[in-house]
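Wed. Picked up where I left off yesterday with Amidohydrolase 2. The coffee machine is broken again, so keeping this brief.
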Amino acid sequence: MQLTQPHIAFKELHKTCFTYPAIDNHAHPLLKEAHRDRYAFEGLISEAQGTALTVDAVHTLACLRATPQLAHVLGVESATWEDIKATRSQLDYADLCEMFMRPTGIQCLLLDDGLGGVEEFAENLEWHDRFTAAPTKRIVRVEIVAEGILKSLFPQNSSILHQFNDRLLASLTESATNPNVVGFKSIACYRTGLDISPSAESDEDILVCLNSALQTYRETGTLRLALKALNDHIVRMALQVAGEYKKPVQFHTGLGDNDITLNRSSPSHLQAVIRTFPNTIFVLLHSSYPFTREAGYLTAVYPNVFLDFGEVFPFVSGAGQRSIIQQVLELCPTNKILWSTDGHWWPESFYLGTLQARQVLYAVLSDTVSAGELLERAAALIAENALFHNANRVYSLGLEPNLSIVNS
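Structure written out below (tokens, as returned):
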């Protein structure tokens, strides 16, 4: 792992932040070699789309910071973004993956394989075990499961709600009892917003949504569930099963692409269902940025809410990342913060997501120690828990930290 501090003020804290093994509690698979150039590489540093991605994103501080960090690994100092793209394209793909995955110190990956394009263009979960000391585990994306079930019921209409409910419950239960599945994920934030109703809609309302979705599928050949009564119903079923089997449910919150309605992506909208499902663990993803303080509040007052501080590495500037982690620590109990890369498609996303998180953890915690507000050993324990132990406990992984996988 690349270290950048010319003078180390707190050696124990520094060593912990940069060498302690990590559990990546939310990421997605890497692309297959045949599809390594399938998506614009600028997606590494931005969730934007179109020209906002390919033209504008390269002018962000996030990109300007990431460029020399990638150049250091590639051995092309003083490189431009275009130099980075050209250099990586000439490397053997296996070597490229090894080059960026090995230094991360990630001991275990928890991968959501429901991201669009994964099935066609990405490696399977077991393939990723070559980079980690512990087997990769799966996070099941519930809306994608529901869409698959509804497609399997097409074109019939009789008793469709009953069959849909039975099959969805069976599928969720099967996942919850599968030892390779450690949690669920909802993308309600992308589909209908996080203001999920805690109360069941009428069967008539849900059936109208099912028939509408099937009609769209009949006419277009595509199925994307974005009908509030139905989507809320699916999430509630997942929350019920997850609570029964002690599997956390991750929620995309905050930061995302332009498919999100921003003012409905705050985790504060989840308060009603958090109360309704007190036995279910809620993991708020992506630092809930820019709603980080709202997320911190929820973790402070509800025992079943945890906060992931991921994806902002590398999408947000260094100063922004430090501010976000400071906001996380303002109120959030330190036994309830979980780290992730939100790595996807490119091995560089895992590298940057790890390097920058380690840098920012040290910067924020060392400042707190310098201010006399925290003992160095206590700060080091916070880092250990954030990187490894909290996720190990929440997802019931049963791992022991492998202290030899990162070299300082």
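Quick read: The radius of gyration is 21 Å.
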